Fold:
Amino acid sequence: MKKLLRSIPSQLIVPFFIAGGLLAGLGIYAIYMSRATSYLGDDPATCINCHIMTPYYASWNHSSHALWATCNDCHVPQDNVVEKYAFKAVDGLYHAAVFTVKGEPQTIRPRDASKEVIMNNCIRCHTQLNREFVKTGMISYAQVKEGEGKACWDCHTQVPHTNVSNLASTPHAIVPLPASPVPEWLRKIMKN
Structure:
């Protein structure tokens, strides 16, 4: 640290620390306001930290999947912890960037990387059903893209989000709204 400070002209040391403090403070503030730590868990209510996910939460909550699967069970790889959190981080940063610039479409649909994860999770959960009971067999999403079969959701259009889920499909959905990140003491000051 001393070497670094010696290499900086003395008149820039104080501005350097002020800029560093501001960046650190803004980073901590952004983490706090975005509820970033809530994304480390599996609570489906976390998804509605972004209000545009409300219709998708509502449709999941009224589906049969709500009893057995969280959002992460379907939308995040389940192979290992590192892959799970790496995917969540990349996907989450993508979503945050799109939502921040208000670039989300009216109907949110998964990208190819997400479709592959979702289909792998359908197969993971429904292996016994497909192999032993209805004997439909299973194909990969790569095979679907090559035209060698259908994705699970091509037939199961209503599971779990329905094919009409979009930002306007559930305008008055009752969902567990996230608590305000504004501290109580600041809310009292703002009221006055």
